[in-house]
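Sorry, explain these tokens?

***
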Amino acid sequence: MSQLFNFQLSVGSRVQLNGNLATIRFIGDIPNWPKNKAYGLEWDDPTRGKNDGQLDGVKYFSTLGGLNSGSFVKDTKIKKEMDESRSVFDALCYQYSADVDMEGTDDSYTEEDEFDVTIGTKKVQSFGFEKLSRFQSNYKNLDVVSLGRLAVHNEIGSQHLGQLLTNLKELNIDFSLIDDWSVIVDTVSQLPTLIKLNINGNRFTHVTKTIEASTHLVKLSMASCMMAYYPQPLLESMIGTFTNLKVLNLAGNHFTNLEKLSYPLLGLMNLVELDLSYNCFESMDELTSFRKLRSLRNLNLSNNTISIHAVNDFELPTVSWLDLSSNNVTTWDEIDLIATQFPKLKAIKLTHNPLFLKAESTNNAQEDDLNLIRIISKLPNITKLNGTEYSQDQRNNFELYFVNKMKDGSWSYPTNTMSWKLLATKYNLSAISPKATLQKKSNHITLRIVPDELESAQGFDQSIFPETTTAGKLRGKISRRWNLSVLNFQIYYKVNETLKERINNDQQLLESFDFRDGDMIYVKMEDWQV
């Protein structure tokens, strides 16, 4: 049976009541319970709270951020519902030693006889050679260990974890009672094969010993640890402990700016992926210092309230993947700034921003397609948008449509931006102006006119038109060829595989659409409207 232990409760102690984590913020008397000691708790899950530490107008304690995550509990309830805490080693035994049948032994499996296997020892007498061998071999086969939500407290319980867990690659001790950072460091130091550590949901308050840098850990997740409220020395000690990190998750830590993070993060020169989602950032202005992180490739800023502003000398040239979904992007100018600030960007997520909410909320496929075209055209190196990959041919089609919209005045666009200059060069625009025209090799274009849901008409395969032909003249020719009234049909052209755009300006020249020989004009039976 696992060796469980109790500890003296005091203000600041971490406790687990029926699986729910909390921090003790107050111990004392309140008028409501004259015969009981009251414990003021701040719950990790704020929805369990009833107040912010104030009762009947008297302030007994404060909660982090002023949240209503506090409540008062009687001492009798604490004793009845508090889960017994475990050391790291005891949690390991509890979670992974069931098949060894430890519960029939005379005594607990303790540190004293842990590795003494000579004949006549207490351990061999209790377990027998077969059980002992099976006990140790089980641990050596483990490459992933999960000890989350097992009330693990500030005790390791063994100095031989590395001898048991010789192949361990990933350790999860999330949502536990550990508040001493030294316990995490000492645990990792015993596990030289460990490369990934998950300590989400813990609340660290102090370090009890000098911390030495550790280099073998590569991935660290510290989400939902309320780190924004940590004193700066503790924060710097924590982030600076594992100097060879490549992946770091700091999501959901209530950060409002990067001032506290910039200095310790800049010591992680091998950092490739950084997750800052679900915080409280309002801008990316302070990301300027991240230019020193030469290895940074993936940056997750989703679920903040970020608006994008022009910042002098702000550029993150190494970032190729960016998540800005669920933020506060409201204008197309902000998309233009992304192109400047992240010049090597290959993939981006932008869903659930105000700029796109209209199309998303109404499931408007055509509006979605138009947004897609504008984003791809404004971000010149993007190959993946919102999780979907797009080919170079698709990009070319999007860009041509975008250029045409610029030329006919439907869309405005600042022509001094980097992405517009790239488009102007790529498509040989005669001038960097929305009114610029594409230079053509021919004065005529061959188009195919085909019916779209028009069963009675027979389309003619190909017709040659001067590029100066207006859309009105094209409609007239179709009217005569198919004996239709010009008021009874519309004509469309295909922007991409899923989107067709209606031609509704009779004065517009064919050359303005950048048609290519063999492109199709679709005729659809519906009333003409401007």
